[in-house]
Specification:
There is one protein chain. The chain has one domain. 67% of the residues lie in helices and 1% in strands. The protein has 17 helices and two strands. A two-stranded antiparallel ribbon has the order 1-2.
Length: 449
């Protein structure tokens, strides 16, 4: 599947390095962008509101976010120096940082967020470059648990989108149920009845049908198209960085959590689609891109970017991994950022329509994680690590009040972040548990007999 194919053919969408006609690859690239578009801009809207930025500032940062996400995706696809994994990893503004930014912004101002992201991104980037010195402590069972946790953590995100989006006036309304259900059914039916490579456009088909239905019932807000400028370019250092130590420590800890998710996403993608473990070079390049491009993003006033699990789920579902094909999606992102009208149209996609598609993709990530756990082998050691880390991570974060005895920074990082808790728990268990548990168990049984 990863082998280069001769000539230009649409069949090469399943090949990492095969040549695909640009025009024919655009629908597949667009599908990836639609899958992550709302999630790419939503964190900015939440954080800027909490930091008391104006509507004009928010709109400018949304444009910048699309350009930065497109650049980050291209770097992951084709690499720049040691940055990038040369894998179909789609980058976007990270939701992982929202809670800590909503704490830092009101406390010390948006400039403190920018300063902390510049420093934290550099730290993560350096960790990526030197991954070979610490990568071994992240055994396959740790990565498998993290991937599974990512999938489970996204199920509620998909459900919230299906219901109309958190905080929306029509959350859980009959219109949201109708839009989400129609989109979901269309995705399934298209996947069943479409032939050949067209089958892999099921998500795009569902989004288009759902969008048309939303237009017909008046659930698409086209007012955002009023008074849009023709061209918008990002500004260098629109906010003066403030290097607050408390903010830097808080944000850097979240960067470590984000790094874990990136490792999990990269591992899930290679395991599920390429049928192999991610190499040390791929992990290193993926993390370095994550960190350094995040610092670059902050220099233009924007938030950190990271790999998007939504798109990993889409890759697992469609098996379309061609780098040129995914690059067309990155190009659409960049063009959307430069020409605001394009981004504004894409931004009118109702959350319920998006939820109808993402609920399938997130389920695919859960299954990918479980498959990775199975590939590690159901030894007594692996079962214990997976069972304890997932039960603690998924269970404790369902009851965030359990963390009330801890300082604010600990609650901010762990109280509702099951991925972080699963990572820490599985990492500690992997380090302290004996390697020969199976042998010891057999010996004890023999002695008992």
């Amino acid at each position: 599947m990863t082998k280069k194919q001769g000539g230009s053919s649409i069949e090469n969408i399943y090949s990492l390095d095969g040549k695909v006609p640009i025009l024919k690859s655009i629908p597949f690239g667009l599908q990836h962008i639609l899958a992550m578009f709302v999630a790419n801009i939503a964190p900015i809207m939440i954080v800027t509101a909490a930091s008391n930025l104006t509507v004009q500032e928010t709109a400018s940062l949304i444009q910048t976010a699309m350009i930065v996400a497109g650049i980050g995706t291209l770097v992951q696809l084709f690499t720049m120096w040691k940055l990038g994994a040369r894998l179909p990893i789609v980058m976007g503004i990270s939701f992982t940082f929202v809670s800590v930014f909503c704490y830092v912004g009101p406390q010390w101002g948006y400039g403190a967020i920018i300063g902390a992201v510049i420093v934290g991104g550099i730290i993560e980037g350096l960790l990526g470059l030197f991954a070979k010195y610490w990568r071994k402590i992240l055994s396959p069972i740790v990565s498998a648990c993290v991937v599974t946790a990512i999938g489970f953590s996204l199920l509620s995100v998909g459900a919230n989108s299906f219901a109309g989006g958190v905080g929306s006036a029509d959350f859980g309304s009959s219109e949201s149920w109708i839009l989400g259900s129609i989109t979901l059914v269309c995705c399934i039916l298209f996947n069943i009845f479409a032939k050949g490579h067209l089958k892999q456009l099921s998500v795009l088909f569902g989004l288009v049908v759902g969008y048309i239905v939303a237009l017909c019932i008046g659930k698409v807000d086209l007012s955002v198209l009023n008074d849009i400028s023709i061209v918008s370019l990002p500004k260098l250092m629109p906010y003066k960085p403030i290097f607050n130590i408390s903010a830097i420590v808080s944000v850097t800890m979240i960067f470590l959590v984000s790094a874990t998710e990136t490792i999990g996403d990269t591992s899930a993608m290679t395991n599920t689609v390429l049928g192999r473990e991610a190499t040390e070079k791929e992990i290193s390049g993926s993390l370095a891109c994550d960190g350094f491009i995040s610092s670059l993003s902050a220099c233009f006033g924007c938030m950190p970017i990271t790999s998007f699990s939504q798109n990993v789920g889409l890759l697992a579902m469609t098996k379309v991994i061609n780098r040129i094909t995914i690059a067309t999606g990155a190009g659409i992102l960049i063009i959307s950022g430069i020409f605001p009208a394009i981004g504004a149209i894409l931004a009118t996609l109702p959350e319920a329509v998006l939820g109808g598609c993402t609920i399938i993709m997130f389920g695919n990530i859960v299954i990918s994680g479980l498959q990775m756990i199975g590939a590690c082998g159901f030894t007594q050691r692996n079962i214990t690590i997976a069972a304890m880390s997932l039960s603690i991570g998924l269970g404790f974060t369902q009851v965030p009040d359990m963390f009330n005895i801890f300082p604010d920074i600990i609650r901010t990082i762990f109280a509702e972040n099951c991925v972080a808790v699963v990572f820490i728990t599985s990492l500690i268990l992997n380090l302290v548990m004996p390697q020969n548990m199976e042998t010891n168990t057999k010996k004890q049984n023999a002695d008992t007999e």
